[in-house]
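Sequence and structure are kept together here, with a separate record for every protein. A complete record is shown below as an example:
=====
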Amino acid sequence: MAAPLVIGIDIGTGGVRVLLVDGRDGSVLDRACGDWPVSSPHPGWSEQDPDTWWSVTATAIGSVVNRLDDPADIKAVAFAGQMHGLVLRDAQGHVLRPAILWNDQRTELQRGAIHDRIGIARCIELTGKPVLTGFTAPKLAWVQDNEPDNAGRIASISLPKDHVVFRATGVHAIDVADASGTSWLDIQTRDWSPEICEALGVDPHWLPPVHECSDVVGSITAEAAALTGLTEGTPVVAGAGDQAASGLACGVTEPGLVSVTIGTSGVVFAQADAPPRDPNGSLHGFCHAIEHRWHWMGCMLAAGGSLEWFRDTVAPGSSFDELIDEAMSVVPGSEGLCFLPYLSGERCPHDDPQASGAFIGITTRHERRHLSRAVLEGITFGLADMLQLVRDTGQPVETVRLAGGAARSGPWRQLLADVFQVRVESVNEPDATAYGAAILAMVGAQIHPDAASAANAVVRVTDAIDPSDADYSKAWSRWRRLYSELAPAMHRLAD
């Protein structure tokens, strides 16, 4: 008999990744990708066309399915992807305006108004974190304040990957992990909060039913089958927000194991057995992709995005490997040069949409390789700040599992191990968000009984690096003081 196959799909900020996976042993058999642009019509804004997500995704799925002898071997499909984005549709299911993305910073006034109305402490109590400018609730409030014609035509609200699910199945649905990033979900009940929705004027009929991430929510329609090559009726699983899917793909199913994902953003992720609430509001408490579990999460907005900006701006034509290799020729601490990676504002540990990036300490001794080193160290120190916040909750941090672009670089993995002072492991599939979606599809296809069992069966450690004798304590301490010292200047420049 043919192996049962599943497809995991990542609806990312810059494009889509599709993985075809053997549902029994987790091996990736084929993959495809596609790109889409991000629009910034005003400073601090970030938007995309939701229907472009579907057209590009359908083409990428088709390129994988068309290489199979029998598409019916695919037993389930699951989507994961970028969180917090706002997609508005009318009564006919048509998109009302471009989606407002996770890294959009236009909603400071609306965020403040929500806190005034509900109270920060109550928001943390119900949703696991304060409202942030990038979350979905203040985006809807912005549309209600600034685009009344669009607000008056709202019939349904989706997050990005759920709009793609809607186009593939005709079903309006969401999972608990992605819903956790809206500021409308009560993480204790794992359902929409009537108190918050009433306080913010959110019609419950706009919101989709909430499911556990491994639940089957619909099936591929005849129209979607014609576009993708999938068999009509193929089950579609609820899926998860990108970070919960990535944590699952790193095998974060028990305490002591923490994942660090370095994509455009940088995320530290740790499991929790009860709803987590940080009274200081620095860490997020979200629902996990594992059924009836939760997770701690910290997110810095420009991790790999900082390195990408540096390459494109300072070293066009260079590869990431070239920049990392030249950085490693510089001593730790980059001879006093520091980089603050706040190119898109910051979320954790500093909730500051007006924060900005900076090089500080430049002298005539410094060359491009020092700048490269400072960028890598600045990103890594920011991740270490969030890892320390996890430790401060009492969660053990015994091993870090790495996902994203840094997982492919041995020198950067060593830097992470040295700064974190724990073992850093890599796992079998670096495209963690799409692979996490595939793991959830295995449960929907009834290949494995639950998400934790599926992850434990297919996630494998492929590399491990222990800390060396390099000492970054002084450099990290010096770097940590810079935000508070420079924040007033950042805010004056932003104004």
